[in-house]
UniProtKB/TrEMBL annotation:
Organism encoding this protein: Sporothrix stenoceras
Lineage of producing organism: Eukaryota, Fungi, Dikarya, Ascomycota, Pezizomycotina
Annotated keywords: Disulfide bond, Glycoprotein, Hydrolase, Signal
Similarity annotation: Belongs to the paraoxonase family.
Protein's UniProt keywords contain Isomerase: no
SUPFAM superfamilies hit by this protein: Calcium-dependent phosphotriesterase (SSF63829)
Protein name: Paraoxonase
Superkingdom as given in the UniProt entry: Eukaryota
ATP-binding recorded as keyword: no
Signal peptide span: 1-25
């Protein structure tokens, strides 16, 4: 080794050690935050629904047929709830949205999809067909889209976090069966930290990326020094007839894009760090051309968004007392037993300028750390899902006092 090269290598190593020491000691925190677009959130804005009594949760039952159900979507025509579920212990090892985690030695992750018939109460695990053998299945957001001209079938769009890369699965499902047939696995560099998905066509959809860096040292820095104003947004992706995938950023950037839903030509995007929901309108009904028309402060950390069937109103699942994710990850088996996280569901009424209205609140005994909720108006049933909990979802019969029209 040449002497100069040796000296340079030593200096680089010493500089790296020094920087790591300064970061860990906090000496560089202020400078880094000031120069990276760090967003300071006013925590008092996120407590509008804190310390309130329970509302409409008197007929809630926790279901243990599935665990760690991050998202739920109700197919209103058949009164069927579809859920993406998983393994709480596995999610501590690998679940990108909850913090960077190094690749584990686990051979494969095999999470599940379930459906619940809300008329009969029947629970069914859905079998996956058409996936490559040995492929990681780590579930997250999902959405449902109709099959034109065939009311017996639907398309299920689902985020998947394989360790190699994120993708969006598009499944075909025949109602009444227990099979999801993979029609397309969509991959693109813009699908990198996917959280929610919302379909706008049979091969066209939006996603939120909830972080800028999917993994590695840069992701660790993002987790430590974020949230950043420029880090997350919504992508519109489409697959053409030659299977070419194109994606385009279609919203403003925000600290933590999370929940996502579409109603007609309106697109609703939740920012879980900022406690807000932005409302966009498709210009000339083009999904890749959006105009922001409103920002709604929901007064709490906001997670998934659904559309109340029969209306154009978003349902937003929120954490009214905050979410202590490091505590939950430390011992997922304690959730709902000794550790409780209150939850609430808000309806943003379109006829009242999207003013938030409390639909349900639970102290965490039934719906601890609930990340998503959807409602079937026909059976007056709310299904709530919790992405880390054993006993992964709850079914609640809503009282007549809750207005669903």
């Amino acid at each position: 080794m040449a002497p100069n090269i040796g000296r340079v290598s030593i200096l680089v190593a010493l500089a790296a050690v020094s920087i790591v020491h300064l970061i860990n000691s906090g000496s560089l925190n202020g400078l880094i935050e000031a120069t990276t677009g760090h967003v300071v959130i006013d925590e008092s804005r996120l407590a509008n629904w804190a310390n309130l009594p329970d509302v409409a949760n008197g007929q809630c039952t926790v279901d243990f047929v599935a665990n760690a159900c991050e998202d739920v979507n109700v197919h209103a025509a058949s009164s069927t709830a579809f859920l993406t579920c998983g393994d709480p212990a596995g999610r501590v090892q690998w679940f990108p949205s909850s913090g960077y985690q190094p690749t584990t030695n686990r051979a494969r992750f095999e999470e599940q999809y379930f459906k619940v018939n809300l008329k009969t109460g029947k629970r069914t695990e859905l079998m996956l067909k058409g996936l490559p053998e040995g492929h990681d299945i780590v579930t997250h957001g999902l959405d449902i889209f109709p099959v034109e001209g065939d009311d017996s079938k639907i398309l299920v769009f689902a985020v998947n976090h394989a360790r190699e890369r994120d993708s969006i699965f598009i499944f075909e499902h025949t109602l009444g069966t227990n099979v999801l047939n993979l029609a397309k696995s969509v991959e693109h560099p813009a699908i990198k930290c996917a959280n929610s998905v919302a379909a706008v066509g049979p091969r066209s959809f939006y996603i939120t990326n909830d972080h800028y860096y999917p993994r590695g040292i840069l992701r660790q820095l993002e987790d430590k020094f974020g949230p950043w104003s420029w880090a997350t947004s919504v992508q519109h992706c489409a697959v053409d007839e030659q299977d070419k995938v194109t994606c385009k950023e279609v919203t403003h950037t925000m600290p933590c894009a999370n929940g996502l839903a579409v109603a007609g030509d309106r697109v609703f995007v939740g920012d879980s760090k900022n406690g807000s929901v932005s409302v966009y309108e498709m210009i000339n009904k083009q999904p890749n051309d959006l105009r922001r028309i409103a920002d709604i402060d929901v007064g709490a950390i906001a997670d998934n968004i659904k559309i109340l069937a029969g209306t154009q109103d978003p349902l937003v699942t929120v954490f009214p007392d905050g979410e202590e994710l490091p505590l939950f990850l430390k011992d997922v088996s304690a959730l709902g037993k000794t550790v409780f996280a209150p939850t609430a569901v808000l309806r943003l009424r379109a006829d009242k300028n999207y003013t938030p209205e409390l639909i349900l609140r639970d102290d965490g005994k039934h719906l601890t750390d609930m990340t998503a909720a959807d409602i079937d108006p026909k059976t007056r049933t709310l299904v709530g899902a919790s992405f880390l909990k054993y006993g992964g979802f709850a079914v609640c019969k809503l009282p007549s006092s809750v207005n669903l029209s």
